[in-house]
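Bench notes, afternoon.
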Amino acid sequence: MFGLSELKQTRVYQEGKQEGRFEAKLEAVPKLLALGLSVEQISQVLDLDVAQVQQALQQKPLKE
């Protein structure tokens, strides 16, 4: 029988988990910018490239 522990070991599960974490980081970018952090600081805090932070800001503009 294929249980939960075996599922968690699959490549598909691991990749999906990583992708979810990455998406969560991207969603945090505008919020951190609104708090006054610079793009460079956000990059360091979230362990992303500056280009990734800038791209996230272009895709999801801040709501005013």
